[in-house]
Amino acid sequence: MKFEIPSGAQKILQTLTDAGYETYLVGGCVRDLIRGVGPHDWDICTSARPEETESCFAGQRIIETGLKHGTVTVLEDGEPYEITTYRTEGPYSDSRRPDYVKFVSDLKADLARRDFTMNAIALGLDGSLRDPFGGAGDIQAGVIRCVGEPTQRFQEDGLRVMRALRVGAVFGYEIEEQTAQAIHENRHMLEHVAAERIHVELCKLLVGEKAGDILRQYPDVFCQFWPQLEPLITLEQNNPWHCWGGWEHTIHAVEAAPPELILRLTMLLHDIGKPSCKSTDENGIDHFYGHPAVSAKLADEMLQSLKFDNKTRERVVTLVEYHDVQIPNRERSVHKWLGRLGPETFFQLLEIKRADGMGQAYELVKDRLAELEEMKSKAEEIIAQGQCVSLKDLAVNGRDVIAAGIAPGPEVGRVLDRLLEQVLNGEVSNEREVLLKVVGIGKIATFKRRK
Ligand code: ATP
Ligand code: MG
Question: Do the Cβ atoms of 322 and 268 come closer than 8 Å?
Fold first, then answer.
């Protein structure tokens, strides 16, 4: 097989090979080349010890941050390449990195420490593959298989449980039976894994094309780090709008959302509060009054526990909170919500409402889905016309408000917010003179503050 390798990587392989060291491309990049997908980074492994690697690249820019674990990063053609000495790993007692690494001289020992057969293939400069665990065959067959004994591998590092699911979701590969069984049996190993590492894998997993299949097959794994999901998994919804139980509805909604992290996370968490809001009426129909607020609170907690950044967390929580809000399909209402949420959040809300509807009884919601499309067009039109949708579009600013007699301080912001609300409601027009008059005659004081 002939593979395309960037010249920077070729130069590094050549330099180390010329100096007498075995050197290969390894890991994700080799896997992706075999899959026919362009790799996003190029990892190199070598029999050279770190200090030997460094001396091969003396005079070149070298980054030493991974030195303790045997990694030297060399900049070639402006690109960083990680060069790691063949090694085996000690236990992960801090659950982030191996306690120690042991340098070895045998490529096979280095490949054996890697998680899955597809990630344990080395590619030499001459295009030859070193594949002692049958990774290329597994890639061809679309199979995820542990290198070695699955139970032992998951017990060494629980993160591998999530890595397997991530690869399954992103590539759509089947998880081999023994590996799958060991994932279920060793899911508790995730307890020992740092939240930041789970976070990374979860984010990649959720935007995977087959994220839904993985959620369907491995709910127990997700409950391991997010026990708040548990009641949703078994939730029944006897309600004409719903043709699925809570978990299957959630999965359909995740699948229907575009593969963007915010939207997928929102769909995963949007109904998380339903179990605790469930009531059944005299006709046996289930209701979930108030669940969006409860879901939002739980989502906030869950996202914090996995160390999501504030921006992502706040956006997801907002979308969860508003996922069920009824927005009439009228220009006035669209304009109001567009201004209230801001265009980006508003368009995301339309997306998640669509995805939510796709997980419900289709016949009953299809008109509603068509309305969402119309609302999207209305919103696009409002923006194209340059109508006021945010504070920055308002015909007055903070200085104007102060000049009109409002004391500098937080009240200025509040007055601007209220003016915006009035403009969005169509109560006053977005004209400087009009707005200043409203401020000047103190009518502002009677405005109701809205969030
Ligand atoms: P991606 O394409 O997302 O980068 P990747 O497989 O390259 O996927 P990395 O996290 O970049 O993932 O890891 C590089 C390589 O290191 C993997 O291909 C695998 O060989 C090995 N590896 C990474 N994490 C583990 C782990 N937890 N246990 C064993 N091997 C691992
Ligand atoms: Mg990688």
Answer: no
Q: Which DSSP letter does residue 409 get?
A: S
Helix (H, G, I), strand (E, B) or coil at 285: coil
Q: Whose CA is nearest to atom 8 of ligand 1?
A: 28
What amino acid is encoded at 130 in this protein?
A: R
Token couple for 344? 């980006």
Task: Map tokens 């696009």 to a residue.
Answer: 380
Nearest CA to ligand 1 atom 3: 28
Map tokens 């801001």 to a residue.
342
Average pLDDT in the 293-320 region?
A: 98
At position 210, the amino acid (one-letter code) is: K
**CB 431: neighbour CB atoms within 10 A?**
12
Calculate what percentage of the chain has a pLDDT beyond 70.
97
Q: State what percent of residues in the chain have pLDDT above 90.
A: 81
Query: Ligand 1: which of 114, 196, 198 to mutate, judged by most atoms within 8 Å of the beta carbon?
Result: 114
Buried b (16+ CB within 10 A) or exposed e, 407-419: eeeeebeebbbbb
Q: Is this structure's pTM higher than 0.85?
A: yes
User: With a 6 A CB cut-off, is 119 part of the ligand 1 pocket?
Assistant: yes
CA of residue 52 to ligand 1 center, whole Å: 24
**CA–CA distance, 114 with 145 (Å, rounded to integer):** 11
Structure confidence at residue 451 (pLDDT): 36
Please identify which residue in the block is written with the tokens 């042991």: 102
Check if 295 has its Cβ closer than 6 Å to any atom of ligand 1.
Answer: no
- Give yes or no for a contact between 439 and 405, defined as CB atoms under 8 angstroms apart: yes
Which of 53, 62, 61, 128 lies closest to 87, judged by CA?
A: 53
Taking residues 268-278, report their average pLDDT.
Answer: 95
- Ligand 1 site-directed mutation target among 115, 138, 197, most atoms within 8 Å of CB: 115
Residues 451 and 77: their CA atoms lie apart, in Å, by 52
CA of 31, nearest ligand number: 1
335 lines ligand 1 (CB under 6 A): no
Amino acid, single-letter form, for residue 403: A
